[in-house]
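Suppose you are handed a protein chain with no further information: no name, no annotation, nothing but its sequence. What can you learn? This example shows the usual starting point.
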Amino acid sequence: MFKRIRQVLSWNKEIKLLQQKIDELQLYIDNLLHEKHEMILADRKDIAELQTYTQSLFHEKHEMILTDRKDIAELRVRTQNLFHEKHEMILADRKEICELVKNNILQFYKENRLGDKKDEINFLRENPLSMYPYDWIKEYENMTVECQQEDGWLYVIHHEKKIFFPQKYTEGQVKQYYRFLIMEQDKRSPHFYGIKENILPQTVFVDVGAAEGLISLEIIEKVKEVYIFESDTAWVNALKKTFKEYENKVYIIEKFAGDVTAGKKICLCDVLLEKNVYIIKIDVEGHEAEVLRGMHGIKMEQGSCLMICCYHNQKDEEIITNYLKRQEMNYSFAEGYVLSTWGGYQEPYFRRGICRAYCVSENKILKEASGMMVGT
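A reasonable first move is to predict its three-dimensional structure. Written in C-alpha cells, the prediction is:
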C-alpha cells in the first residue's frame, strides 16, 4: 500500500513538473505571439505609410503627366501654327517667284524672236506659270479619278490593272498624282514617252526611276521582262503590290542606278549584260547623265531605244545629245517644251522633255562616256 502511495506521489510530482513546463511553453507562446503581433502591426504601419507615400507619389506624377500633356498639346498647336505659317510663306514666295519668272520670260521673248515658242508664250500671257504651258492641260483639272482600297493600300485602275500608292498618301494626293501622270502621258505632252505599239516580244523594258511604274504596267504583257530600278522604299513596297501577278517577269532592284556599283548604287552595265532588244527609260530627277555613264558595254540589238528625260538641269539636253552622238544613235524629242518651275531661271527657259534614241540599222555596244559631266 505504501508502495502505491509513493507511486501516486511520484506521479503527482511529474504532473506538476509537466504542468510547469506547459505553463512555461504557454508563456513563451504568448510572448512570441505578442512579439509577432507587434511586428505585424509595425509592418502594417509601414505598409500603410508606404501606400500613402505611393499614392502621394502617384498623384504627384499624375499631375506632372497632366502638365506634360498640356505642354505637349500646346507645343503641337504651336507647331501646327508654325507649319501653316511657314507653308503660307513658302506658297507666297513660290507664287511671287513664279510671277517674276513669268515676267522675265515674257520680257525676254518681247526682246527676242519667238521662234517655235509662239503657243507657249501666248499661254503665258493669259495664264500663271506652268510646267506644261499649253491650254490642253486644263482638260485634266477636273478629271474623275476613282480611288479604291485593298488591305489598307490605296490604288486606282489603269488600263484594267491596279496601280498601288505608298501608304502615306491620302486619297486626295493619290487622285492629284494620277491626274498629273495621265496628263504627262498625253500625246501632246513634251513628257510623252511615245513607246511604239508594235513592241517586239523579245524586248526587255528597263524602267530607271520607276516611282509608281505606270509605263512598265502599260506594256507588261507585250515584253519579255521588266527591270525596275527604284530606291524609294515607300514606292518599292507599292510596286511589289502592283506587279504581284507578274513576279515571274518583273525584277525590282532597290538601288540607285548610277556610274558605280557600290552600296546603294549600281551600274546598268552590271545588270544588263546580255545582248537584247532593250527599251530603257530614264527619269531620275536630274541624275540622268550619271546613269548614262554607267551603261558602257551594254549590248543593244536592232530595235532597241533609249528614252531619257532631258529637262531637270539647265544643260541636260546638250549633255545627253552629245552622249547619243558619241553612241552614233539618231535621236528626236517629244513634241513641245517643258517650262522650268523649280530652278535654273535663265535662258533656255523652255526645255525639251523627252529625248528618244533608236538602234535603227545595226546592233550597238554602248561606248564609255567617262568625260561626260552631270548637268548642273
